[in-house]
Design goal:
Number of domains: 1
Number of strands: 8
Low-confidence stretches: 9-25
Number of helices: 2
Helix content: 10-25%
Order of helices and strands: HEEEEEEHEE
Keywords: Signal
Distance between the termini: 79 Å
CATH class: Mainly Beta
CATH architecture: Sandwich
Protein name: DUF2141 domain-containing protein
Largest sheet: 5 strands, antiparallel
Organism: Duganella phyllosphaerae
Strand content: 35-45%
Length: about 140
């Protein structure tokens, strides 16, 4: 009969779990959206980071900053790595929505990552798609 001492499995499992949780949190990045074409001092700049499934709908990550004439930066933290698209608009009246006219054309300035544009409406996700890794990424967007 062996009398060798065996370390309990539970503490080692807890160490592995802690490592996995820490490693998982390291795979999120900050997205720094540099927005140009901002109408001076009117409202705020709203930005969102969306996956393909939620593009133009309910984006998982968002942020805002007061509109500064020329260029405004919005930082969105903890975005997991993957393929995403960035949507931005200048919310001049600060009602937290992109105002549109009676036929649905935006009345406030807006833009997408990669300065993607659609022909008759918004661009496709693939036209605006960017890859986000583990490190901070700077995404330029020009409002139109």
């Amino acid at each position: 009969m062996s009398t060798a001492y065996h370390k309990p499995l539970f503490p080692r499992a807890m160490l592995w779990l802690a490592f996995a949780l820490f490693a998982g949190s390291a795979s999120a990045a900050s997205v720094e959206v540099k927005v140009s074409g901002v109408a001076g001092g009117k409202g705020k700049i709203n930005a969102a980071v969306c996956d393909k499934e939620h593009f133009l709908k309910d984006c998982a990550y968002s942020g805002s900053a007061p509109a500064q004439a020329g260029q405004t930066t919005v930082t969105i933290d903890n975005v997991p790595k993957g393929t995403w698209a960035v949507l931005v608009y200048q919310d001049e009246n600060q009602n937290d929505k992109l105002d549109r006219n009676f036929i649905g054309v935006p009345k406030e300035n807006y833009g997408f990552s990669r300065d993607a544009r659609g022909k008759f409406g918004p661009p496709d996700f693939t036209d605006a798609a960017i890859e986000i890794g583990d490190d901070k990424i700077v995404v330029p967007v020009t409002l139109k």
